[in-house]
Amino acid sequence: QVQLKESGPGLVQPSQTLSLTCTVSGFSLTSNSVHWVRQPPGKGLEWVGAIWSGGSTDYNSALKSRLSISRDTSKSQVFLKMNSLQTEDTAIYFCTRSGTEIVMDAWGQGASVTVSS
Amino acid sequence: IQMTQSPSSMSVSLGDTVTITCRASQDVGIYVNWFQQKPGKSPRRMIYRATNLADGVPSRFSGSGSGSDYSLTISSLESEDVADYHCLQYDEYPLTFGSGTKLEIK
After folding, report:
1. How far is B16 from chain A (nearest CA, A)?
2. N or C, which terminus of chain B has less Cβ within 10 Å?
3. For the segment B27-53, what is each residue's pLDDT rounded down to a tens digit?
4. pLDDT tens digits, A2-25
5. Which of chain A's residues have a Cβ under 8 Å away from the Cβ of B45?
């Protein structure tokens, strides 16, 4: 079945770079897109960005200068890198699948990221 | 596109009919999903393309709307429905979510 699982460090120091991995199974990255969505503590959901089935990317304009999303299709993995982290980037980061006519039908369990010294 | 979701919280009783609304700042052409999120869990897609029930979602959930106004209705609320609910527009990028609605039991 379709599964996504986020992994990465739980704690990142301010001004450092966050690296998260989303490992997927049950579907192909060359036929589906993967989006990243984050949720600060006690707040709503925010779309971070996406990598499309063809490998192109789209980013939230508020984060674009600090953000990079890439993938390794041979390993069924999608990567998020965000630099110059600040306390406001503290959140749970989710990866979620989309496809043709399908938007965010499956989600990972989320990776909690705390930005603190 | 801004998605204005209301109410932000709602105190409800089991068996109630509950309606949550999202208003988009422009026509989003029925490209609206609704998600349920329970504490400590990831969101679950409940409704897609404004009116379609996702797989495994009970029939007491329904979605309606068009243009810029959308709603999620839960009929005969059950205890397992107490959660946060989020709308999402995917007509245009960047994708945008509503601010969420928290359902609580009276």
Report:
1. 25
2. C
3. 999 999 999 999 999 999 999 999 999
4. 999 999 999 999 999 999 999 999
5. 104-105
